[in-house]
Amino acid sequence: MRVNETFTVDLAKLDITKRELSPLSSMPSGLLNRLNIDEAKDLFTYLLAGGDANHALYTETKSN
To answer: 9 in a domain, yes or no?
Structure first.
C-alpha cells in the first residue's frame, strides 16, 4: 500500500480481512475538464488498452 512517495507500508495477506472496490475514483477530480478532445481520446485509449503499448487499439486506423 503506497501512502505517499516516501512512505510505504507492507502488509501480509493474512493481515487483510476485507478487500473491496472504492466508491471513489482514483482519477483526480476535474481531470477531463482540462483535456482537449485528442488528449481525452488518448487517455481512454490508454485505459482500454490496459497500458499495453502493443495493443491493437494503437495499430487500428484512426477515424474521426
So the answer is: no
Domain assignment present for residue 45? The answer is yes
Residue type, 55: H
Structural domain span for residue 41: 31-64
User: Number of structural domains, the chain?
Assistant: 1
Taking only the tens place, the pLDDT of each residue in 21-45 is 888 887 778 888 999 999 999 989 9
Q: Is residue 18 part of a domain?
A: no
Confidence of residue 18 (pLDDT cuts 50, 70, 90): very high
Q: Please report where in the chains the cell 472504492 appears, as a residue.
A: 22
